[in-house]
Structures are given as structure tokens and as C-alpha cells.
Model the fold of this input.
Amino acid sequence: MKMYGNWRSAAAFRVRIALNLKGIAYEEVFLDLDAGDQFKPDFLAINPQGAVPALFDGDGPPLTQSLAILDYLEETHPGTRLLPADPRARARARSLAQVVACDTHPLYVPRVRTFLMEHYGLPREKMLDFLRNAFTTGLRVLEQRLATESGTGRYCQGDAVSHADLCLISLWVGTGIFGIDTAPYPTVTRIAEDLLALDAVARAHPLRQPGAPAP
Ligand SMILES: N[C@@H](CCC(=O)N[C@@H](CS)C(=O)NCC(=O)O)C(=O)O
Done:
């Protein structure tokens, strides 16, 4: 498979982890989102939204939207399950995943940050305040649910890694990048630390991708 991504992209990170866990070979083409590679005609022909990831599987058309890609990989490579078999558990895993991918991450993607600064003249510090509010709101919801709901186990849903964990860790790594205090989220922290110890997650980590700043 061939994926268009970016070292820092949370959405591409989720997909890289799934590819690694399922043992699918892939190459990644890294776009420079700060330089606007995502809005160049060649890439807009692949994804008119101007966003990564975009995944090619063979000769088929590009797959876009990380959650849709995760579902596609689940359906085409069911060997290593990343969604529980039980419908209620599956719905909960998806619900937790969507807290991150649908209701948190979209608030701080580059196009939103740029719009806030360029269109409304928001100073960078206020934009970062907006971004940190999005992060902490998402983390607070995850913490409350993971700490109180009976479905939580070693990972977000029971003791097996699911789409919920891929999304959780994709949010979590941003806390380091954007300087967000993680102390108020002990359950999220526990699960994130377990996830980071997995080779499939470690290899997919943003800071291990080409283009990432040196540690
Ligand atoms: N909901 C989409 C989000 C895709 C997205 O916004 N990706 C970001 C990087 S994480 C991007 O390419 N942003 C480009 C921009 O905002 O200009 C998904 O989960 O795939």
C-alpha cells in the first residue's frame, strides 16, 4: 500500500499503527503541511479536501478519512482484529474513537489554526489557547469515560487494542508537542503508556518519521 501522510499528522499516525499491527507493508509519502503541499493540484486530485492521510491499496481509487481507512483495513485484513466482535463493545470502541477523531482533532488541524490567525487576526498565543482548550476538553471526556465505564480494561475497550486506542494515542502524542499538562488524566496516561510500549505504535510514532524534529 502507499500512503500520503505527514510526520506530525494525528490522522496518519492512527493509520500507520493499524498498518503495523496488521502487518501490512506500506510506503509513506510525506507532505509538508506547513509549506502547503496539501493544496497543490497534484494532491488535491487525490484528496480534494487537501488533508492527509490518503491511502492507495493497489490500483483502486484513494481511500481518505482515517476512520474510514481503519474500517477498510479491518474489513480487508481481519486477521488482527482492531474492533471487538461484540456489537456493544464495538459501538463503545467507536464512540471513544469518535470523541477524538470527530469532535476533538478537527478543531486544531492546520487549516483551522491558520484561518483563526489569518482571517480573525488571532495572535498565535490565543490560537494556542484555543487549541489547548480543544485538547483538554477531549482528554477530560476520555478520562471521565475510561475511569468510570465498565468496558475499560488494559486498553480503552477491554484488553485488546482497538480503534479507540489508536485515536487516544494520536491525541496523546500532541500533549507533548503542544505542552499540555497530562496530570489530570491518569487513566488516559496509563493506557497511553501501555500503547507506546508496543512496537507497532513506537514505529509509527510521529517523532520517528522523516521530517520530524531531532529529539
Ligand atoms: N478527519 C480527517 C482529518 C484529516 C486532516 O485534517 N488531516 C490533517 C493532518 S492531521 C491535515 O492534513 N491537515 C491539513 C490542513 O489542515 O491544511 C481524518 O481523520 O483523516
